[in-house]
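FORM 12-B: Structure-to-Sequence Request
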């Protein structure tokens, strides 16, 4: 991560505390409010109303805890993505919350800060939108005042209060707005597909189909479309199905996929027929994990107080746009192998592969790394597959 971006991230808790001060008599309740909101977002989600963030205690917990953690997570992802924006381009952020993506893009991609951009920030909650705009203004002003940023922000931000329900989406009746060069959605679709039974693949596929059409309708033909979801099994399945639906619309995957072959996480029959290595979805799903040890200390303190320790941050994501085929995407941590070798699993046009090499070579990579095809070495036929996983083995130069 860029040093400047890291410094701004470390300042987030202080900026949030100054922008959204909590009266002293309520500060002690913040950890318990965070814990309760976490339960509503996970195992108690059936008790959550659509307007849960309009409640002051939950909104405060979200702003002080979930907002900075979500920004930090996005700042791990965004620098690795091939996102190209030009002067006067439009970005449309669906289900934007308190401008989480906009803030993360501003922090992690400094080359865009002075580029005149128009950003449509769309959410169903007016108070959340207002809080997000207030936070973003404080974030950009604080950085400018501290000389971390040379010029003021050149972005025009439009707050749009709108309920996005893809289940009722009809393209013919869709509200028309300027199509965007980048359409994104972060942690929005899980609020819908979390209610679909995990064994109802067709229901999940139909939702992915509607999501692809909806997001595509907001995007220019050559636009990038980014979807980021929690790194849990149902999210991984949704992302894999969404990939298939976007390919049908001729919107090809840019990342994490290095190919347009059937996704090895969900297409067992297709992969078997093609001789590709299918990935056992009972054990694995499409997601990426990063250690969170260098996140701001105040966030770790709040996590401990709320009894929600965060050692790792996980997410599933898909970016469509410019497609460059070949190679492998690393999808695991490093682990030791026999003969003093180390390995990481990767996803490729061959399905699941095991990328091996000496420890230094493997530890240079991380979850998300792209290993070009010309950097991968074929093994001899009698040593071609890993005995434990069945994955095709490839060496790394």
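FORM 12-B RESPONSE
SEQUENCE OUT:
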């Amino acid at each position: 991560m860029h040093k400047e971006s890291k410094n701004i991230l470390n300042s987030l808790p202080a900026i949030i505390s100054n922008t959204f001060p909590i009266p002293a008599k309520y500060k002690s309740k913040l950890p318990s409010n965070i814990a309760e909101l976490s339960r509503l977002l996970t195992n108690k989600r059936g008790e959550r109303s659509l307007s849960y963030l309009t409640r002051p205690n939950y909104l405060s917990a979200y702003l002080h805890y979930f907002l900075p953690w979500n920004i930090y997570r996005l700042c791990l992802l965004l620098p690795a993505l091939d996102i190209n924006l030009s002067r006067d381009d439009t970005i449309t952020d669906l289900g934007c919350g308190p401008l989480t993506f906009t803030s993360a893009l501003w922090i992690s991609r400094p080359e865009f800060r002075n580029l005149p951009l128009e950003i449509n920030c769309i959410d169903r909650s007016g108070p959340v939108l207002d809080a997000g705009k207030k936070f973003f203004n404080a974030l950009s002003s604080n950085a400018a005042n501290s000389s971390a940023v040379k010029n003021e922000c050149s972005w025009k931000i439009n707050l749009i209060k709108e309920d996005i329900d893809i289940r009722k989406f009809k393209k013919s009746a869709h509200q028309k707005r300027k199509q965007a060069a980048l359409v994104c959605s972060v942690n929005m679709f899980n609020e819908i597909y979390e209610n679909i039974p995990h064994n109802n693949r067709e229901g999940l596929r139909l939702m992915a189909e509607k999501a692809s059409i909806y997001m595509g309708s907001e995007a220019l033909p050559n636009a990038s479309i980014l979807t980021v979801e929690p790194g849990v099994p149902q999210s991984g399945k949704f992302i894999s199905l969404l990939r298939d639906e976007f390919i049908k619309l001729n919107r090809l995957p840019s990342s994490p996929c290095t190919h347009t072959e059937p996704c090895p996480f969900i297409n067992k029959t297709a992969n078997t027929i093609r001789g590709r290595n299918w990935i056992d979805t009972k054990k694995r799903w499409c997601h990426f994990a990063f250690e969170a040890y260098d996140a701001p200390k105040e966030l770790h303190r709040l996590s401990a107080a709320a009894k929600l320790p965060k050692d790792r941050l996980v997410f599933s994501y898909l970016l469509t746009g410019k497609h460059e085929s070949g190679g492998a995407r690393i999808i695991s941590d490093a682990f030791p192998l026999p003969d003093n070798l180390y390995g990481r699993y990767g996803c490729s046009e061959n399905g699941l592969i095991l990328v091996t090499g000496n420890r230094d070579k493997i530890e240079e990579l991380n979850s998300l790394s792209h290993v070009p095809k010309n950097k991968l070495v074929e093994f001899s036929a009698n040593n071609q597959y890993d005995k434990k996983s069945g994955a095709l083995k490839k060496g790394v130069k």
